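Why run this: before we spend reagent on co-expression, it is cheaper to look at a predicted model of the complex and decide which construct boundaries make sense. The entries below are exactly what would go into the expression plan.
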Amino acid sequence: MTTAPEKTIAAKDRLVPGTPLLDVRDLHVEFKTRDGVAKAVNGVNYSVAAGETLAVLGESGSGKSVTAQTIMGILDMPPGRVTAGEIMFRGRDMLKMSNEERRKIRGRKIAMIFQDALSSLNPVLSVGYQLGEMFRVHEGASRKEAKAKAIELMDRVRIPAAAQRVNDYPHQFSGGMRQRIMIAMALALEPDLIIADEPTTALDVTVQAQVMDLLAELQAEYHMGLILITHDLGVVADVADKIAVMYAGRIVETAPVHDLYARPAHPYTKGLLRSIPRLDQKGEELYAIKGLPPNLYKVPAGCAFNPRCDVATDLCRTEIPALHQVTDRDGAELAGRKSACHLWKETLHG
Amino acid sequence: MAEPILEVRDLVKHYPLTQGVLFKKQVGAVKAVDGVSFTLEKGETLGIVGESGCGKSTLAKVLMNLERATAGQVLYKGEDISRLSGAALKAVRRNIQMVFQDPYTSLNPRMTVGDIIGEPFEIHPEVAPKGDRRKAVQDLLDVVGLNPEYINRYPHQFSGGQRQRIGIARGLALKPEVIICDEPVSALDVSVQAQVINLLEQLQTEFELSYMFIAHDLSIVRHISDRVGVMYLGRIVEIGTDTEIYDHATHPYTQALLSAVPVPDPTGREGRERIILSGDIPSPANPPSGCRFRTRCWKAEERCATESPLLAAPKLLTGGAKHDSACHFAAEREVAGAAL
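The model came back. Tokens follow.
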């Protein structure tokens, strides 16, 4: 090898699974618009370690994508504004870093995969050029080196005949292949953390299975942390280690994956799980959470979910519930389980 | 069995591919729908599943006569409607209505809800005489669970789920017998999907509607459908009752599709066997010879390339599945998706 060691992918330190990577603490983001102030994120806490998959589950408008964009540092400001909170990445608060420092982390340490691969890729540049750009910009590679790296990456995400297709343009690839290119781009600099925002929502189920498989394989190989943002309860059940459920800009429940599906501790989570059509309910009415997701300009007082909740009391209508540590019947703490519900005990045990 | 309300026979829709500017020469065709047959009984829900590009939306358009069929017949109560035009077509269309996928683009933003739902009455004045229209629209709003006072509002003042209700109300306005729902809930939030599905089921009972329910969400299709057809590259590859398709699938594509659906339950996920298909769906402009699924099929043999399998009850089958399956080697197999 003639290239300098810092330029080669293999020379990079492998992550040790379990190393804490990201810790988001009490993050608040709001948007100032003509219609008023939209409080998109109202106190989000979550953390991810190396080798771990955190699924952030929520409906549109729950703040899951805004949180991710804030972590990534790609939120449009203005109108967006971070009003409080910390985003600790490997022990340092990214919100206090200079733009220069953040740029070094973006792409190199934290990378993002977007939902719509076709609109995230530049239609007038070949995919090889766009993949190679990562190496040219971040590592000062020559055009030739960059192209070789691009082919290597396309191989790694299993795009058939990579060497022949490297000069093709995005529209010449199918949806699944384009999403592989997005994954390749995110992987290019071997980041510690990948944020995947609805990576398979635009794909068919058979292709979705291929892409999720690929992500899992790559994660097992590189031990990167993965934040998977989705609304699909099926995908979450398949790949997540732990889950954070968001509603109206808040985390309403966090739990390890098996606990969440077996015994949810928040009425919203419970409602979502109950509204999945199940075999034994054929011909019966589906359980439906009543009402609509809240308007972010006027989030209901107290618990934001209270107008749609089956068990809401007067307390829920006035006081915002804290994120309680969940315990079992004997009062022993359940690891990783929290619920922002005044009635979490009744929800979990009742 | 009573006469089916809708019967489709060997329906074909090809979109010509042309070359040249002045003298257009046909150089091929996108075979979007290529020989589809099925029946729809009164009061029944037929689910159609398949991946994007399999022709399920084109099928809906041809049934509605929004696109002219290239060949084949669509029999509505025994009468072929695929060749109708003018007044005769207009009369038939009253009875077959459609609910579209995207409630954001299928409602005109410059019309009030009252005008949108009332527009079918302009075309078919015999259903609601002019003086009664406002009342008729308000009744429809009430039926789909919207406040009748919202009649003068515009679509942007409603959420996605509410807009879909408006689309359903418009579909109901002419008291049709058949409603074709093309992905009616896929643009909606999870917590709102169940509300719309419940509404559709409740309306079906109330008005004795027949649904053709096109969707890619297999668990929702199972919930709502009496029978299910699976489409691949313009053809139905397997069709049967919901139990036959979901629990006793015999076509490899159906099995792969079922096993690819993520099950919303993490229990036992490590041991779950998945059939991961390689490659993508081939282009409908140039489909594979013989069986169209053979390029991605693990069972494919020489015979599959030469001989196109018919959609029929498999003869040599152990296990007793009797529903139609278009595979030379149809056989049941345990698949993970059976837990749906």
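Chain B is about 30% helix and 20% strand. The first helix of chain B runs from residue 56 to 63. Bring this page to Monday's planning discussion.
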